Here is the input.
Amino acid sequence: MAQDLVTLDQFSLQEREVEQALARVNVRDVDYADIYFESTIAESVSMEEGIVKRAVKSVSQGAGVRATAGDKTGFAYSDELSKRDLDLAADHARHIVRSPKGDAPVPVTHRPAPAAARNLYPLDAPLTDVDVRERVELLTLIDREARRCDPRITKVMASVAVEQKTMLVATTDGLRAGDVQPLSRLQVTCIAEEGGNRQTGTFGGGGRVAFSFYREQDRAQAFAREAARQAILNLGAVDAPAGVMPVVLAGGWPGILLHEAVGHGLEADFNRRKTSAFSNLMGRRVASDVCTVVDDGTLPFRRGSLNIDDEGTPTTRTMLIEKGILHGYLTDRLNARLMGIPLTGNGRREDFRSIVLPRMTNTFMLAGESEPEDILRSVKNGLYAVSFGGGQVDITNGKFVFSASEAYLIEDGKVTKPVKGATLIGNGPDVLRNVSMVGHDLQLDSGIGTCGKEGQSVPVGVGLPTIRIDELTVGGTAA
Amino acid sequence: MADENGRGVTGMDTSRHNLNEVAADLVARARARGVTAADVLVAEGESTEVQVRLSEADRLSRAREKRLGLRVFFGKRSATASTSDFAGASLERLVDDTCDLAKAVAEDETSGLPEESAMATDIPDLDLHDPAAPTVEDAMDRARRAERAAMDADPRITNSEGAECASAHGAVVLANTHGFVGAHRSSHFSLAVTPVAEGADGQGMQRDSWFTVSRKWRALETPEAVGAVAAARTLRRLSARKVKTRRVPVVFDPQIAESLLGHLAGAVSGYALYKGASFLLGRLGQSIAPPHVSIEDNGRMAGRLGSRPFDGEGVPTRKTMIVDQGVLTGYLLDTYSGKKLGMASTGNAARGPGETPSVSPTNLFLHPGGASSDEIIRSVKEGLYVTDLIGFGVNPVTGDYSRGASGMWIDHGELAYPVQEVTIAGNLKQMFRDIEMIGNDLEFRGSVASPTVKIREMMLGGQ
Here is the structure.
């Protein structure tokens, strides 16, 4: 099991040094403290103009020390892993509790880590061990495939990024847990030109998967064809309509709607501070009864999955909305403790330089019973959105926005012209109340999601079956 | 963490490493490996951030870090690698890794360091560094005062996402096989507060924020002033409505107008242009806006947040007119993207250690016009005054633009009531042509700055 393989040796540290640093931060008034050790190797290779021009590698390691007291957090980090640096970080972290001078450190004894129950991403070898030439070959293949699709494809850009993160967290309540977290992503962008018209198409995917994933079932070529198809499609796209209309979302990546519209609003920190549009809605109806939404960090090989979160808590599947009723929040240790609610294993951080925040893992709506074709047929005039660029939410007033990168008009129950530049805007606590049909075709995204919060980026997954939203504002340019 | 903004010839006062020596040593190690050319970028920084919420200390973060990046060339093949471990064995491994990677990629005819003659020879002091290191208590006090000023401003301010006060110091050294060694230091101080307001109408909460930022600790605005503006910005959002779908004039407040300059910077970036991924492709020398529009990038402005004496490749920064009286006159270029377009670098290479250069603006701003923001609002019979935008609905290739907006409805020249949950849409090419009025209220609150801007007409999507 991956977790068992992570030891302090990998960070060139002695058991005693870590215990001493923990004791040093664990002064009176500190409820909880932890040290997060991380070592990450990341490599990215990119191609444009038919040649692989760029290769970039980065190696970083360091430790973050955190102390919490009530709702206060003290945090310090260092990219040097010497005893001196750990002690200094511990002193800075405990400064938050302003313990009186001379306050004695409280020793911390650690219990042996429980045997790892699972490994959601067992890989034979570190991703970074894959010969860079193999990655170069893959990108060359993609370039050829995309150009072969259509002579109007004039530019192809592609990149493959791999990362191998080793983490270990040591806590004042005696936990010692580590994990090796592989992550990779392949991204293709095509530009299509016709006359003076230039359009782009992008597709990508990945996860906590072995490099062979991209070769299996000719996935890399399929990514290239998909990016090319979108670029060509957009050449013929008409201006998006503006106004309120029924919207059908396709399965998969459009699940970003859940992430923006409800997911962020259900992260515990905003609710503890009562600054979320969802504060005080627990147990209340926030969606129609065909909507059930979960966050699940336990799906094998998925981009948003983790064996343990960054506080050592095993990830779980958390019911967020059950048949339309708000059921639970996503928590880290601090917020679970302060709110007196269950720990869900959603304490995540970008790296050792960042503090832990409650974050999503893979967030999706469970399949319903409708036929996707019936859902489309049910709409007289509206918008069918198949893929999105990105989205954003204002947690406090609940307003969210996301931008369609592939969308079509629905006219008389039929999918007709592709449209460009459509933006959807709505209110988080309202939008799911307007969901009247949910398809049986739940699909997870291809593994490209990165979520930003307080300046920290973490990989996440989303998923959705085909759904019908009776009313949503579409922001286009056509009246 | 440091960026490239700063000066000085040694590292931090408290540095455990002489950055110049580290950089020079690594260039020598690379040379010994037979590279044709190489450059090294080393950065070191220290920062402290405190966060206060509802007057209580909420979070205290301290950071100290360093990073070193090496780029090597074997003829026309190149690769880049970086590490945070400055120990000898680690540096040897870094050189090995970088050389191995370089041998695996294709030859790229355009690649290479800047010409020796293009390197900065004079590194002016741009007044970017203030050694002041506020104590944690001092920073806490400022944050607390800013939050209190916001909370005390009005009983409808009922909650807070907190106030933050941060300080950072950084140093950067760049060295290459031309024998160039350049260094600079910088500092960065900021104070921000995000109050939450709730109206009596049961229509839910609103939040907004305000901030002050400077390279000088003493130049920060008072916490009371920051808190008062944050409160006013938050309060004016309460009881917001949706409005009907229609075409209307749109006025961008200065904070929001900045984002238009950001989109322009993306479109005139050499990388976007040579990849054909810009809505301004082929427009150099042509009119893209009315004659009252002039947009400047200037990396040499003393004390400004986007200033730096040399760019990420060691090329001197300078002033470049991007748009001069409505005509597109300049691009933002580094050595590579410049060569691709048959042009010289404009000193806009942006780069952290271990990154290949990209392009970014330095201090980018729209020259102010003659009207006050009130006069601009008064010129609108019916339209939207935009104070916030969300979402990513901008296509840099086509210029298609559609974003979520909130702000105030303008009725017969007066700000009438707040508006939210609407979209504004158009195309950036047309939006720049439609800049009808520019305010006289230019203020540098970041590296990109704009006065109030009025766009003749956009599509508003609402009810």
Chain B touches chain A through 82 residues (CB under 8 Å).
